[in-house]
UniProtKB/TrEMBL annotation, chain B:
The keyword Membrane applies. Belongs to the binding-protein-dependent transport system permease family. FecCD subfamily. Its main location: membrane. This is Iron chelate uptake ABC transporter family permease subunit. It is a multi-pass membrane protein. It is found in: Cell membrane. The keyword Acetylation does not apply. The chain crosses the membrane at residues 20-38, 73-94, 114-144, 156-175, 205-225, 246-268, 317-334. The lineage of its organism: Bacteria, Bacillati, Actinomycetota, Actinomycetes, Micromonosporales. It comes from Micromonospora globbae. Keywords: Cell membrane, Membrane, Transmembrane, Transmembrane helix, Transport.
Length: 274, 342
């Protein structure tokens, strides 16, 4: 584990939907100013962990601490000024323009008599510039491409101006070029704005390349946590994903690169069991 | 968007177009109102109406305006506004353009109580009370059925449609049990009519609207706008999603129940008014205030049409809104399907 402080952490959490328990005794810490990426196979509890950390799901045991205080003792609005979340899917209201949507990120800072301050205006412009959607400001969101739309949602989350930002699979549904574009953008926001980012990602190699801190999960527990260089090993990938592989150095960045082992021809051609 | 800022750091943001739509509807409603109050078996000139309203009329004019026509007009305005507000809230909550209280069983629920009173025999006060009580009971039942998983859009729609079918059956059964005269009266009530409405019909709804309008518009309006983007996004922006849904569902059910108690289950106003408002303002969002203005105008217009379209025969306002609203629904289905939203 990295040394250092952590504004956001969960201790001894039991996470469950109705009676279905996803995780028990789960403990995680998000190092401050890190780009933390959570990885793991489908249904390992990654997104559930993110929901718990963002106050959407109340642990049935244990607690999520935000700045040392149980996150459920604060109001949703108070939390929303410190911690933002970009959910997996959001709905753009019919006919809304880019700048209108990004402006909605200011909601937790607004009130009945403080509906649109100069500060709001400035932050929305900056957020659109940071994500490169400023020249789309007056376009309708439903006309945009998937990659552009995801940048707009990211701009909205940025406009919330939270030191902590959680991203649930921000690259899903995007093609490879747009995936890299979004991740580069996240990395830049992390470096330039000093925000703490926590993202759930599916692609191990993306995770290894962009994360400064990696949390690997399986069956609702944390299998390993630390810098990608230490965490991503062939043994860990086998343990977490059940995938035989080799780990080499990424020729571009020197970070770990996971190369799945080739199976025998016969196995590849045989129909996969369901 | 237009922004007004004061040196003290206060700021207000609004869409001029929404204001124009609201003001335009209010003017139109006022004009229709003057026509409604002036016309009828005892025609008066608008000048007579104004003179009577300011206290200078003859006793006969005083009676006709203050006891007959004005309460009817006020009831129409209030019922239209209440149904439209409830419809706009429901449609935003379930994120479905068809998610109006007519479709989700709430108006049928209010009717059931009223029909029970018709069958058992009771005063019109009892009828109104029963309509409110059974409307609220329907709301509680729906909430009990969907509460476990949270009041999610699709679940609420499906449960509501199911309940609507059951209640329609019950209401049909109750009608067959009613004595013939009472059944005829019940059918008129079920159509939704403003005929013979007095201040005793308007006042309870006025009180409910006076309390709930600021609560819904100012207290919940901005948060409801965030809810359009999905529960998770709204929650991430600091909206207390569960509590907001509960409050809004309760408010909408109250509005529908009291509106039904005042004028019967007038159909399609709750469905069409928010749509029309959105088309007129051309802005995303629940458009709560414009929807209320449109709803009030619609119902006053429908009632006026019902009184005047046939010289010797009055149509109940609900028949007009049903005919016009039904046509609008067909058109909407075609348009939404083409746009790929249904």
């Amino acid at each position: 584990m990295e040394a250092g402080t952590s504004r956001l952490s969960g201790t001894g959490m039991t996470l469950a939907y109705d009676r279905r328990t996803i995780a028990e005794g789960l403990t995680v810490a998000v190092p401050d100013r890190s780009f933390t990426v959570v990885i793991g196979p489908n249904a390992c509890g990654k997104s559930t962990l993110l929901r718990a950390l963002s106050r959407m799901l109340k642990p049935t045991a244990g607690a999520v601490l935000l700045d040392g205080e149980d996150i459920h003792r604060r109001s949703a609005r108070q939390v929303a000024r410190t911690l933002g979340l970009l959910p997996q899917s959001s709905i753009a209201p019919d006919g809304i323009t880019v700048s209108e949507l990004v402006a909605r990120g200011r909601y937790p800072h607004q009130g009945l008599l403080r509906q649109w301050s100069r500060e709001d205006e400035r932050v929305v412009e900056e957020s659109m510039a940071a994500t490169g959607v400023d020249d789309l400001a007056d376009r309708a969101v439903d006309e945009l491409s998937g990659g552009q739309r995801q940048r707009v949602w990211l701009a909205m989350a940025l406009a919330q101006q939270t030191p902590l930002l959680l991203l649930d699979e921000p690259t899903t549904y995007l093609d490879i070029a747009h995936q890299i574009e979004i991740l580069d953008l996240c990395a830049r926001l992390h470096e330039e704005q000093g925000r703490t980012l926590v993202a759930v990602l599916h692609d191990l190699n993306h995770a290894a390349r962009y994360a400064t801190h990696l949390i690997a999960m399986r069956d609702g527990r944390v299998v390993a946590a630390g810098p990608p260089g230490e965490v991503v090993t062939a043994e860990l990938v086998a343990e977490v994903f059940g995938l035989p592989c080799r780990v080499i150095d990424d020729p571009e960045t020197g970070t770990p690169l996971v190369v799945p082992s080739a199976r025998r021809r016969a196995t590849t051609l045989a129909p996969e069991p369901a | 968007m237009t922004v007004l800022r004061t040196p003290g750091g206060l700021s207000l943001r609004f869409r001029p177009r929404a204001l124009v739509v609201g003001a335009g509807c209010a003017l139109l409603a006022a004009g229709l109102g003057v026509l409604a109050v002036a016309g009828g078996d005892y025609p008066m000139s608008p000048a007579d109406v104004l003179r009577t309203l300011t206290g200078g009329g003859t006793p006969a004019e005083e009676f006709i305006i203050h006891e007959l026509r004005l309460p009817r007009l006020v009831t129409a305005l209030l019922v239209g506004a209440a149904l439209a507000l409830a419809g706009a809230v429901f449609q935003s909550l379930v994120r479905n353009p068809l998610g109006s209280p007519d479709m989700l069983g709430f108006t049928q629920g209010a009717s059931t109580g009223a029909l029970v009173v018709v069958v058992l025999g009771g005063s019109s006060l009892a009828l109104s009370g029963a309509a409110v009580a059974s409307g609220l009971a329907t709301g509680l039942l729906v909430y009990a059925l969907v509460a476990r998983t949270g009041v999610h859009g699709y679940r609420l729609v499906l449960v509501g449609i199911g309940l609507n079918a059951i209640l329609t059956g019950i209401n049909g059964y109750l009608l067959t049990r009613a004595p013939l005269m009472d059944a005829a009266r019940a059918v008129l009530w079920l159509t939704g009519s403003l005929d013979g409405r007095g201040w005793s019909d308007a006042t309870p709804l006025l009180v409910v609207l006076a309390v709930l309008t600021p609560l819904v518009l100012l207290g919940c309006g901005p948060a409801l706008r965030m809810m359009e983007m999905g529960d998770d996004t709204a929650a991430a922006l600091g909206v207390p999603v569960r509590r907001l849904r509960l409050v809004l569902l309760g408010a909408a059910v109250l509005l529908v129940a009291f509106a039904a108690a005042a004028a019967g289950p007038v159909s399609f106003v709750a469905l069409t008014a928010p749509h029309l408002a959105r088309r007129l303002t051309r802005s995303p969002g629940p458009n709560l205030l414009p929807a209320m203005c449109v709803g009030a105008t619609l119902l006053v217009g429908a009632d006026l049409l019902g009184q005047r379209v046939f010289a010797d025969h009055q149509l109940p306002a609900g028949a007009i809104t049903g005919a016009v609203g039904g046509a609008y629904l067909v058109w909407l289905l075609a348009v939404e399907r083409r746009a790929g939203r249904l």
